Structure formats: C-alpha cells, structure tokens
C-alpha cells in the first residue's frame, strides 16, 4: 500500500537545486559548443539533453523504492561495476591513449563513473555494520582498503588518474566520517607520505608533466601549460559581470581547449564573470550542505553513511575541477557535476541525487 508520508516528506528543495544546476549546465554547454559550427560538435548539446532525460528517469526509479535495496545488493552491484572495468581494459574503446569506454551500439558507457557509486554503496554497507565509537583500527580497515584498491588500480590502468583520485577521496571521507583510531590514523598518514616517491616513479610521462606544469605553468606555455594559461585568461577576462551569454571570445575563437568537458567552468566564468561564478559555487555549496543535512537527520546508519559518500563525491569533483581550471591543482580530467558534457557522468550524478531524495523522503521510517 502506498504510504502518503512519502509525498509529505518529498524533498522538493533538493529537486529544485538539481534542476537549477542542470539549467546552468545546459546553458553553459550550449555556449561552449556554439563556438564550433561543425555539426558533430553542435550535436553534443542534443546528446546531453537526451542523457539528462535518461538520468531523470533513473533518478525517479531510484527514489521510488527504499534505499535498503542498495544495502541488500551492495556487493552484487560492486562486483558488476568491477567486471565492467575489467571488460574496458580487455575490449574497451581506445581513444586518445586510454581505454575508458564500452560501446553499446550508439551509446558509450564509462564504467569508472559507475564504480564511484559502487564503492559508496559497498563501503556504506560495511561501515554501517562494523562501526564503533572508538574508531576503526588498521586491521579492521583491511577489508575496506581492499574494496577500494581493486577499482583504484583498474582505473589507473586505463589510465584515468583523476577518477582514481576521486574514488580514493570519497573512500577517505567516508572512513573519516565513521572514525579511525588515532594511532591507526597516524600510521596511515605516515604510510601515505612514504608512498609519494613510489607513486611518482609509477606515473606516466604526461602525468608528471601535468604536475610540473601546475607548479610552473610558464615552463611550457605552448605545450603542457597551454590549457591552464588559456583557462586563467578566460576566467580573468570575465572580470566582475562577464561578457554576456554567447559572447566569450576565448571560447568562440577556440583558444580554450576541452571547453565542453574539463574546462567548461572557464566558459561560464568568462560569460558571467566573478558574480556568476560565485552564484554557481553558492548553489553547489547549498547542495553539499543539503546532502550533509540529510545524512545528519537520517536515523539509519547505512542511510547516513550513504549520503555522506554521495555528498563527498559531489564535493570533491567540484573542488578538483574548479581548482584545476583556476590553476590551483594539476589538470587531472575530472568533470564538473551537472555541467561538463558526458553521458556517464550525468547518469552517475543523477543516481546520486536519486539516492539523496530516497533517504530524505524515508527518514520518518526510523524516527
């Protein structure tokens, strides 16, 4: 029997925030692809609209049933996502030196986006069952560490260092939320510091170049530093109020590379200026705080940890992408949620919104 309280507790505020950011994203994408008259490029806006339609359908499907479904099927979903990552390495589409996509006819799927949800769900299940007030010890963290490192190495192998980094940051945020024993935390920090030289030795040449360029963008202004320099010019040229919709010269003249994906925030900042950029950041901040508030009010531990993981994913992607386009972080290819072009990214972020809505509208079940 349908419970009327589901309608009473439906989170219309979160849904409104989602539509608002999606509107920001679609308008900015239209502008980003408008500078290139080539039909394949212009069609990206139509494709993004279709992906949003599919994402909306998935979001609705997710909040129609209880989020406890994810608790029961967490490991199944996790292993299916990892199987897709293995499939990518063996049979994935090879583009620009990386294997990241699986073709299903006219549709391409990026499993490294889906595994973010898989990691969040499986860690929420594990932590909700074994969390204690004293925090997790190193021995108790072995299982979640293995659950995270499996997809991490599969993603690095593609290679996709940016997405692999996001997976680690999501897992780290969820682990910090459920607490780590103080001594174990010190050991983990020390181990991370010792591992830095080892990680550097395993980085590919272009990945090292990106980090060196981040430290000194002017060392190769026409090569590795070109992206960052043009991005900062676009952001700075917007000044206080921007040049106006469709009036960005860096975008229109194709000076800005990857303007519809990784560097789309630069397009938005050039057209709407500092005030517009701050408005977008405020909307993202409100959504992040909204997600944390849902976690805080949830009376079920699995639901609370699940919301923390989903909110952490949104936060870290916004933080890394905007830091990247402003030259505050190395270029690692992390999309801006709701805004950057990408079907798998849109589907994943709409799944996240569906999960938050699901937990929010069922919070009365545990009061």
Please estimate the helix content: 55-70%
What is the succession of H and E elements? HHHHHEEEHHHHHHHHHH
Q: Approximately how much beta-strand content do the residues carry?
A: under 5%
Q: Tell me which oligomeric state these chains represent.
A: single chain
Give the terminus-to-terminus CA distance: 20 Å
Structural class category: mainly alpha
Count of alpha and pi helical runs = 15
Low-confidence stretches: none
Overall, the morphology is globular
Overall number of structural domains:
1
Explain this structure to me?
The protein has one domain (20-362). It is 69% helix and 4% strand. It has a 3-stranded antiparallel β-sheet, covered by helices on one side. Helix 2 packs antiparallel against helix 13 (264-297), helix 3 (39-63) packs parallel to helix 15 and helix 6 (111-130) packs parallel to helix 8. The protein is built from 15 helices and 3 strands. Strand 2 and strand 3 form a beta hairpin.
Quick recap:
With 367 residues, this protein is mainly α. The chain has 15 helices and 3 strands.
Spell out the key features of this protein.
single chain; mainly alpha; 367 residues; 69% helix; 4% strand
């Amino acid at each position: 029997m349908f419970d009327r309280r589901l309608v009473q507790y439906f989170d219309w505020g979160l849904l409104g925030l989602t539509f608002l950011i999606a509107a920001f994203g679609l308008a900015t994408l239209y502008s980003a692809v408008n500078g290139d008259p080539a039909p394949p490029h212009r069609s990206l806006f139509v494709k993004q609209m279709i992906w949003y339609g599919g994402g909306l359908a998935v979001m609705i499907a997710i909040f129609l049933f209880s989020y406890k479904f994810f608790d029961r099927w967490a490991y199944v979903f996790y292993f299916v996502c990892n199987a897709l990552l293995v499939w990518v390495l063996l049979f994935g589409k090879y583009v620009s030196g990386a294997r990241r996509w699986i073709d299903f006819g006219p549709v391409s799927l990026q499993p490294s986006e889906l595994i973010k949800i898989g990691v969040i769900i499986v860690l929420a299940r594990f932590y909700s069952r074994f969390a204690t007030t004293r925090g997790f010890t190193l021995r108790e963290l072995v299982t979640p560490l293995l659950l995270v490192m499996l997809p991490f190495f599969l993603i690095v192998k593609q290679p996709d260092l940016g997405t692999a980094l996001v997976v680690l940051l999501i897992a780290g945020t969820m682990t910090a939320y459920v607490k780590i024993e103080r001594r174990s935390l010190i050991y983990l920090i020390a181990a991370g510091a010792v591992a830095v030289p080892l990680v550097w030795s395993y980085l590919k040449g272009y990945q090292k170049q990106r980090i060196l360029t981040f430290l000194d963008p002017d060392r190769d202004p026409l090569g590795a530093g070109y992206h960052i320099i043009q991005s900062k010019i676009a952001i700075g040229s917007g000044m206080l109020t921007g040049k106006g919709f469709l009036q960005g010269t860096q975008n229109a003249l194709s000076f800005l590379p990857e303007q519809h994906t990784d560097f789309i925030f630069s397009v938005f900042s050039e057209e709407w200026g500092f005030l517009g950029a701050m408005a977008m950041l405020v909307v993202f901040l409100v959504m992040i705080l909204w997600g944390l508030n849902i976690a805080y009010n949830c009376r079920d531990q699995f639901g609370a940890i699940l919301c923390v993981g989903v909110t952490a994913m949104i936060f870290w992607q916004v933080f890394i992408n905007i830091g990247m386009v402003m030259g505050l972080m190395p270029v690692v290819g992390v999309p801006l949620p709701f805004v950057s072009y990408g079907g798998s990214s849109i589907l994943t972020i709409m799944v996240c919104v569906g999960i938050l809505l699901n937990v929010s509208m069922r919070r009365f079940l545990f009061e």
